[in-house]
Amino acid sequence: MSDIATLFARDPLQMSDEDFSLIVQKFRENRSSFNSAPAIATKKPSTPKVTAEKKAILDLDIGDIDV
Amino acid sequence: MFEDRKSFSNGVQFAWDSTSLGMALECQRKYYYRMVQNIVPQNQSVHLIFGGIYASALEHFYKLRSHGADLEEAIHSTVKLAMIKSWDAERNAPVVFEDDKKTRVTLIRTIVWYLDQFGDETDSAIKTTNLLDGTAAVEVSFALEFDDDILLCGHLDRIVDFGDSLYWMDQKTTGSTVGPYFFKSYEMSNQFHAYTWAGQVILKSPIRGGIIDAAQIALNFSRFERGFFTSSPLQLEEWRESMLFVIAQTQSNTLLNKWPMNFTACDKYGGCPYRMLCKSHPSVRPHIVESYYTTPEKPWDPLVPR
Questions:
Q1: Per the confidence metrics, is the pTM higher than 0.90?
Q2: For residue range B110-143, what is the model confidence (pLDDT) as tens digits?
Q3: B21, B75, B90, B214: least buried by Cβ within 10 Å?
Q4: Are residues B229 and B182 in the same domain?
Q5: What is the CATH number of the domain that holds B146?
């Protein structure tokens, strides 16, 4: 939005029609990306409980496996 | 004190609008400070600045469209107008919006997003209606006989045809989520009853009520919901009778110069702008007025059309 910030810092009476078109275009892009963005999940994904047995398996190093 | 105000005669207000009625209803002291003394806080509420520019921009859009302007041309012109209105020419800098959500950027974003969603009414069931003289019903200022020697004045942005019924249209902005609760808060709106009553008189036709387009302004998005206000003829008459009672009471208070405070209204709508005055000792109020309040060049005058 840096282009927008630059345009917004300028006196609108000194701006050209192209400048206003650019503002409209930027906000349209902004709306389009907002509408196409996936909905943000508000619920925390559940993390399965790690039992001591599973943890022992997960902590195994390759050297622990007798191959 | 009242020479510059057309809506006062012999120091008593006879031409009313929903704003002055609302103040008289809410608190007689508030009415006194705003309408009689003509003082306002030096720092205008961000909600009033934001909502005011937003409403006037959309009104400009519908006016252009009713005069045959192309959709894109009208959108660009509306954005330009809002950019100019939110620019402080004296400081040569943007108007300062002291709020996280309601800023100059979110204002322009909301206008663009709203017009992209609702601006094209080609295939919509909503159409601007015509006044009795055949002109499009946009920017309709009115001053109508409300009772003997009492006028009701105001301004309707637009009157539309929707589903074979007539409705006025109004815009509201909020930082909160817009849902059923939001629209419920307007069911007993004094402003909306006034619009409906006036619309019926202007068009000599039973207006069913209003369509309210509410915009939720969030940090990263704007969201819109459309709601309805309706009022039956009997309900409108009840409202009119209640308002005439308030007007008579306020006129009587004006003649007696008695301005009771309504202590239950001080915290409404984020706090009354005159709270600082009311809570202070009467002896220091003139100093507070001098330090924190100002007198607008143009006083609020319901009889002056926009």
A1: no
A2: 999 999 999 998 878 898 888 888 888 988 999 9
A3: B90
A4: yes
A5: 3.90.320
Question: Which A positions 43-62 lie with beta carbon below 8 A of chain B?
Answer: none
Residue B299 lies in a domain: no
Q: Which residue has the tokens 């609108």?
A: A12
**Contact flag A24-B112 (C-beta cutoff 8 Å):** yes
Domain shared by B258 and B222, yes or no: no
Cβ of B87 within 8 Å of Cβ of A12? The answer is: yes
Q: State how many domains chain B has.
A: 2
Task: Supply φ then ψ for residue B144, to 5 degrees.
Answer: -115, 150
pLDDT tens for each residue of B12-37:
999 999 999 999 999 999 999 999 99
| Any domain includes B131 | yes
Residues in chain B within 8 Å Cβ distance of A12: 80, 83-84, 87
Confirm or reject contact between B70 and chain A (CB < 8 A): no
Tell me if B119 is assigned to some domain.
yes
Annotate B115-164 with DSSP letters as a single string: HHHHS--TTSSEEE-B-TTSSB-EEEEEEEEEETTEEEEEEEEEEEEETT
